[in-house]
Structures are given as C-alpha cells and as structure tokens.
Design goal:
Elements lengths: L1 E10 L3 E11 L4 E3 L26 H14 L2 H11 L6 E2 L1 H7 L15 H15 L4 H9 L73 H11 L6 H9 L3 H4 L10 H19 L8 H15 L5 E2 L1
Antiparallel strand pairs: 1-2, 2-3, 4-5
Bound molecules: 1,2,3,4,5,6-hexahydroxy-cyclohexane and fe (ii) ion (2 copies).
One fe (ii) ion (FE2) binds next to helix 4.
GO molecular function: inositol oxygenase activity; iron ion binding
EC number: 1.13.99.1
Keywords: Ascorbate biosynthesis, Cytoplasm, Iron, Metal-binding, Oxidoreductase
Length: 310
C-alpha cells in the first residue's frame, strides 16, 4: 500500500495545485521518499517551532528582543529608515559576497536557530530545491530572502537587532493581536495615536501591500535592494522577500483587508515558501563549496550586474 502525502505545486498559468510528491511504501516497511523535504516536528532544541513561550535558554532573550522591537517600530521610524537605506549608497558587493558577510551573523529574535545566517540561507534554498526542482527562481529567493540581515554589519551602521530581525507588521494602523508578544505594543507611541491605531489607520480597503509601510528590517531592505538593482525575479519572489516575516498575514490571516488581487495570488507562493524557511532550520550543515556553482549561475540569470548597490 502506498500512502500519498499532499504537496502543493505551481503550474504556470494555473497557479497552485495539489501534487502527490512522495510516498511511504508499507509493503517494504520502509520510507520511500522521492527526494522530498520532510518537515521535522521539533526544532534543534527539542521544542515546537515558533513557540515563543516555551521555557529554554533562548526564550528570555527573544522576549526581550520583542519588547524593544515593539516599543520602537513606529510609522515615523520606518519613514526615516526607508529614506536613508533606500538610497543604497552604503556598499557595492555581489550577492555571494553578501552570503559570506552573513557567516558571522546570528539572529537574536529566532527561537529555532542559533547557527550563522549563511547556513539558514543555504538550508532554505536546498530544501526548496528538493521539492520544486524546476522553480529556479524560488531557489534563488530562498538564498537571498534573509540577506537584508547585513544591516547588522558595521559597514551598514551596525543597526541593533530590533531594527533588523524578527516578525514584521504594518505600521500606520492598529497592531493586530496575533503578533508575537503583542502586549509590548502598549509602549509604542503609535499605539495611542488616533491617526495610527484604527483598523485602517492611514490605509484604505484593498490598497495593496505595496502601499503599506511595514516595520523596518531585513525584509523591506532586501526587497528594495533586489528591486532597485533591477532583478528579473518574478513578482512572487519580491513578495516573498518583503513579507516572509509577516506571520500575522501569512499564518494568522490578519490584515487581509489591505491586500489587492496580486497580493492574493502571491500569498500562495509565500505560504509554500514559509514551510522551507521555517522547517529547514537545523544543525545539519550544507557543503557551501559544493552548491556554490549552482547558486552563482542563478544569480547571473536573475541579476543584470554582478555587483549590486546596497
Ligand atoms: O526570528 C525570525 C527571523 O528573524 C527570520 O529571519 C524572520 O523572517 C522571522 O519572521 C523571525 O521571526
Ligand atoms: Fe527573515
Ligand atoms: Fe529565513
């Protein structure tokens, strides 16, 4: 007997459809995988993924991270950061050089991972590659989605962790209760500002997420870098990069009233991507030198110049 496990797949022009991706053969009493990626039940610390209350060494630091993040991410702050970092006048480097810079970067907001970020980028991309071998754009999206974390590096002004990592959320309208450690928004000045604390705030129904200011961090920054450097990646890739930390949307379905038609389409891809972003976090290291030529070929395909403006 064969047990089929459902995996969604994208078919050009049709969108996301169900796909039978791998099976377990009971006759042979062994697992027969068609090279598929298996999402583990627990993280490398033995806890469920994204359990922000589970007791453990990382919990107090992660909670403190969110306290400071929620207090400081205001509409005004985001406007300033977008204007300053949108100039892309800090550094010139290639995508691969950026991967290498992330060799020393550890994300303090993450309860599931304490490995350097280069590992996470490759783990994500390689996990996607297993299940979606044909979607080369999605492999590259995996590789670059967290590169905005270079904002932590001294050559980018060494921004504090609260201004770079963690889940993101819209500013300029009410903070949804589904956001991790929501209680700390009480200390954010926008929380009691009537211009910003209603369901719509400064936005309108269906205005499109492109027109929504998101809390500042690696997502919005990398989106600007990719867009301004004229990537030919599809719009779903840019959507994934800008909103992959927006769990209130892609997990809790909050803020849907701000989406437009294109957002609704792109969200399907983000939900696929999220499985690999989250569940590939592990202690299993990728052989960087072995996979490097493949990713260099993708970078060449989707970016017009080898040096990017950051
Ligand atoms: O801690 C994690 C990490 O910073 C990820 O890169 C980000 O995308 C997540 O949303 C966040 O919660
Ligand atoms: Fe991220
Ligand atoms: Fe990530």
């Amino acid at each position: 007997m064969t047990i089929l496990i459902e995996q969604p797949e994208f078919v050009a022009g049709v969108g996301v459809v169900e796909k039978k991706d791998f099976h377990v053969s009971e006759d042979d009493k062994e697992l027969v995988l068609d090279g598929g990626f298996l999402a583990p039940h627990t993280n490398s610390f033995g806890q469920s993924f994204r359990d922000y209350d589970a007791e453990g060494d990382r919990q107090p630091g992660v909670e403190e991270f969110y306290r400071i993040n929620h207090m400081n991410q205001t509409y005004n702050f985001v406007e300033k950061m977008r204007a300053q970092y949108g100039k892309l006048d800090k550094v010139e480097m290639s995508i691969w050089e950026c991967c290498e810079l992330l060799n020393n970067v550890v994300d303090e907001s993450d309860p599931d991972l304490d490995e350097p970020q280069i590992e996470h980028l490759l783990q994500t991309a390689e996990a996607i590659r297993k299940d979606y071998p044909e979607e080369r754009w999605l492999h590259l999206t995996g590789l670059i989605h967290d590169q905005g974390k270079v904002l932590l590096h001294p050559s980018f002004g060494q921004l504090p962790q609260w201004a770079v990592v963690g889940d993101t959320f819209p500013v300029g309208c009410a903070f949804d209760e589904s956001i991790v450690h929501h209680k700390y928004f009480k200390e954010n000045p926008d929380f009691s500002n009537p211009a910003y604390n209603t369901k719509y705030g400064v936005y309108e129904e269906g205005c499109g997420l492109d027109n929504v200011m998101m809390s500042w961090g690696h997502d919005d920054y990398m989106y600007l870098v990719a867009k301004e450097n004229k990537t030919t990646l599809p719009s779903a890739a840019l959507f994934i990069i800008r909103y992959h930390s927006f769990y209130a949307l892609h997990k809790s379905e909050a803020y849907k009233h701000l989406m437009n038609e294109e957002d609704i389409e792109n969200l399907k891809w983000l939900q696929i991507f999220n499985k690999y972003d989250l569940y590939s976090k592990s202690k299993v290291r990728i052989d960087v030198e072995k996979v490097k030529p493949y990713y260099l070929s993708l970078i060449e395909k989707y970016f017009p110049t080898s040096k990017l403006r950051w």
